Amino acid sequence: HRVDRRQRQMCIRDRDIIDQKLSIFQQNQQANITETNNPAYASTFGASLVTNGTFDSNITSWTAAGGSTGTQAHYSVGGVNAILLKNNDTNSNFSSSQAITTVVGKLYRVKADINAGLLNSSGSNAAAKAFITLAGSPSTSVIAGSSSSVVFYYTAAATSSSLVLNINAAGNTTDSALFDNIKVEEVTGRK
């Protein structure tokens, strides 16, 4: 009876180990399925549709767009070239835009580096943020005092889409943010 009991215990332990391994395998399989559903997974991309998205020497092709009495300028310090958007009005926002040509129904990857380190996050401006939009679809926001690369995907509904760099600063003047390495690329295929 001792042998039978020991064998049963070993079988139970072996079954538990197999169940654990199977569970880990199933979790990995699910993670792989989730990853392959991500548009970026093993995708290929066309050339960027953005004109002057790296701001190497100027900010041509970008137009100040509504909201406030803000300004836009070329920023070049320590090897960093970017567009600097400055909000010069209280309780307002400032943006810069560029029209790009898109194809209806095509999927696009939108990318940018945003530095909101110069946005004031005190008092009534606690919600200050910087972000980009393509045809009104926004990226995640970069909150005041931080910087980040943002990426999002957009399926075009029109042949012309407005790419907009935004500062939302609602209470202080002279808030600014930097934008660089801006790209809008068609997802051309999957590997």
Can you put this structure into words, describing what you see?
There is one protein chain. With 191 residues, the protein is α+β, with helices and mostly antiparallel strands. It is built from one helix and twelve strands, in the order αββββββββββββ. A hairpin with a 2-residue loop joins strand 7 and strand 8. The termini are far apart.
Write a brief caption for the model.
The chain has 191 residues and is of the alpha+beta class. Helix content is 19%, strand content 46%.
Instruction: Estimate the mean pLDDT confidence.
Output: 77
> Mind describing the biggest β-sheet?
6 strands, antiparallel
Structural class from helices and strands? alpha+beta
Number of strands: 12
Coarse morphology: elongated
Individual helix count: 1
Low-confidence stretches: 31-36
Gap between N and C termini: 59 Å
Order of secondary-structure elements:
HEEEEEEEEEEEE
Oligomer kind: single chain
Helix content: 10-25%
Note the beta-strand portion: over 45%
Computed over alpha carbons, the radius of gyration is 25 Å
